[in-house]
Amino acid sequence: MFYNVSSLFLKLLLLITYIAIHWSILWSNIQAAELNCCSVYGVHDVLVANCSDLNWTFVDLRCVPVTTEVLLLDRNNLTTLTNGSFQTLTSLQQLSIKSSNIQSIEIDTFLGLGQLQNLNIENNQLTDDVASLNPQAFRHLTHLKHLFVGNNQNLSQNLKDALVYLRNLSTLSMDGSETLQLGTEFSYLTQLNNLTLYCSKVTHVTNDSFIGLWHSNLTILNLINFYLLQFDPDYMDQDTLKKQFSDDAFQNLNSLEVLRIINCRIGNENMARKFKHLINSSLHTLYLEKTHYAKEFYTPNATFEYCILSTNTTQYLSQLTLSYFSWTNSDIFAVAPRVVSSPQWRYNIKSIDFSNNVMGWLGWKFTLLQAALLEKLEVVIITSPSPENEDSSPDLGLDSVKDAVQSPLLSNFFKSNTTPAIRNGQRLDRKEISTNNAFFHDAASYHALPERNDSLHTEPLRREGTFLFETNASHTAYVKLDSISERMFITFSNNSTNTCAWRVRLPLSLRIVKFMFMLQGDKDYGNQSVQFFQTEGEAANLTHLYFVGNGITRGTGRIMGLANLQLLDLSKNALILSPYFFDDFPTLKYLILKSIKNDDFFRRVSIDRIIQNLIELRYLDLTDNKLNYLSPNLFFRNPHISHVILSKNRFTSLPLKMELCTSLKFLDLSGNAIIYLTVQETSSLTKHSENVQEFFFLLSENNIACVCSHFQFIKWIKSSDFLDKKGNYSCTSEEGLLISTGVLLQDVFGFYRQCYGYNYLMISIVLLLVMSFIFLMAYLVHRFRTAIEAYLVRIFVKAFRPMKSSDYKTHVFIGYADEDVGFVRHILLRYLEEDLKVSTFVHHRDLGPGYTDQQMFEAMRDSWRILLVITQSFLNNYDLSDIIMKYASHSVTPVNQGRVVLLVQQTQMYNIPGSLYDVLEDSRIIVISDLSAPLDYVQRQEIKQCLRDIH
């Protein structure tokens, strides 16, 4: 007996175990189905799992293959990383958990990640508390080379204690402490060469701030966002400033090659003193941004004092042996000539960038007068802030131009980076999983911007190749400074016209000139002129010329010698040029004429004449020029044209003959006045896309009309896969409503039926009735004359008798707002359907697929009574309320006079439209004070009385 009991118990136990195992498997499958799984794809034989933006609250690796090498968990809500979260991913090499609200990382979180080389946990909520991040959490990452932990809650000390475990680090980003201090703990990092410090909490940079890097091989240093270290000269003396940011702070950085300082508002002169220990060092790239005082100055004397870089204040800067120099967005008003033409710069500098400063007055252009002495200068960028707060064009790398046209933006067209991989609809940015973060660029990629000026001449030039620009802009020097001689600035001639001419020469090595939003001023004087001239072959290396928004009014003469110019940008000027001006650039491939401010520009010089001799032209940008017509044979002489940008103009049709543009890959007609394209135009575009597989056509921001007369055009939008936004545009319907073509084209046959179905149906019915009527009349009149007369009498009598509930498909149509569905469902319907036994139509329950408006109208038409629940939500928030009330008022006829009944919220009694009052008796307006309370006896009887004809 004991044996039998034991056997039974064992069988029961096995059954329970079997059920538990299968239930756990089933539950896991259910959870996996509900889980937002990652996108998994391969990039150059690297397996990537992208789990970003899934709102995860914990790390769940069920959708991640164990062989994953790159895992992206950015922008989730993980809060805590628990022990062993990644231990199954033994092949993982790169892990990114940026911006995921991480507040704590347990000590064994990274267990099993011995092969990890790149870890990014920037922009989280980690602190120096051990409970938030224990330094020993990094002991498992023995092969880590790149660590990014900046932009946390001032995480600095705990990270320093963890460096003993991270001896292989070559790249590090971290937060700086209040007193910036990189001590002896950094001596462990013998391979560190790239360091970024987020300095939002830093208030002091001392002589010993970088002492721990004395023996390091650090080559790149980035200091970013000193929000608390801002100097105001009115309230702080220089001695106090030196205590905050020591002039000897960089004395321990012997191997530094690249230095970037961003948003350190201590003043330009003070910043220029920080580089004395970098003289004769290996530093070749210096990038400074937003170094001017936070205070704004409005008087000329104060502006000159704080915003001019004189030879005295830049004595250390001019002695650096730099190749790439950039000082941007720092309110620099002028630079003394000897700063840029020092011997160290003359034989080394390749790129100078003074972007987004305030050197926008003609009288101060000669601060870079001696730039022509820079023998290796390749890139010059001088820009002032744009009046529209934007640049006209991005930097273009013509040697690595992509032919891909998947993006309508000019910047994407000219990007030199490799195309990011796309798998399963996800785009992988290689920079996100690269060993460098956003600030770790190759130094050679920095385009600087100096300009080549040789000498000042007030006499006019009388030689071939001279080009004269005239502008109304001028500027008067308000003060004299000992450090900058007054004679170095422009001096006006004594004649009555107050004109002045100065000539500019180009360095032999110069490739890129970017001169944007300059030549502005007080307009106190008359016309001034700028004369460009070149000797033979002097400008032969120039490939990019940006001359944008410079207030030029006229250009006369010719520019000669630009034998290899590939890009010319004259956007946002008010130029008047001769027709033959562009004939001197036979190698030009990219011509940008955006937003020309002279309305007569294209009337004086036609576009056909501009490009007729540019046989190498590939890119033409005519954005925002109020154009409404182009010659159909415009590109007859330009066989290589591949990109045409005509956005923000006034074209109403396709302005080009596609048969002549056999190489066209990109056509932008966005932002014009196109309502529709004809069948001939759409056919030419379709045929062109078949011949040019990479063709891309932009049509967004046009006033497209989604009307029945343009049905073929709307259908073409759906079938064309070379359109931007995948053919999903905003358009105007027959009723004047703004709708989306994507929504409209989800049911093409439905749209066709809506447009033509009614007409065809009516024609068919009419024909059928005519035929039937003729046949029947002939037959009936011949044989059943008496019966026909009796039948007509009966039909006539029925047409004027009162209608009954049995004559309709539904007893009661209930119109209500979506917010009042609770009252309708739980109170009103129970009374009508359960107590009164009537059939009802409510849109939450009875609407089917298809057009909502049409179904609502059909339901009201087929209902004996129309019961409207008039509330504030119905009158103010319900989109169909006006249409329903108008239909209800028009549905009252002599054969059904009591068709409309109102249940009115007491507070809305005076808001009932007059169209309803006119067709209602007072007995058919039932007042309801509280929609959440059941109907009382009086209300129930009133409703029953209004529906009495049903029974």
TrEMBL record:
Keywords: Glycoprotein, Leucine-rich repeat, Membrane, Receptor, Repeat, Signal, Transmembrane, Transmembrane helix. It comes from the Eukaryota. GO terms for molecular function: signaling receptor activity. It is a single-pass membrane protein. The chain crosses the membrane at residues 12-30, 760-781. PROSITE patterns: TIR (PS50104). InterPro entries: Leu-rich_rpt (IPR001611), Leu-rich_rpt_typical-subtyp (IPR003591), LRR_dom_sf (IPR032675), TIR_dom (IPR000157), Toll_tir_struct_dom_sf (IPR035897). SMART domains: LRR_TYP (SM00369). It holds the Pfam family LRR_8. The keyword NAD does not apply. Its main location: membrane. Gene3D superfamilies: Ribonuclease Inhibitor, Toll/interleukin-1 receptor homology (TIR) domain. One of its GO terms (biological process) is signal transduction. Residues 808-951 form the TIR domain. It is found in: Membrane. The keyword rRNA processing does not apply. Signal peptide: none annotated. GO terms for cellular component: plasma membrane. Belongs to the Toll-like receptor family. PANTHER family: PROTEIN TOLL-RELATED, TOLL-LIKE RECEPTOR. This is Toll-like receptor 7 isoform X2. It comes from Biomphalaria glabrata (Bloodfluke planorb).
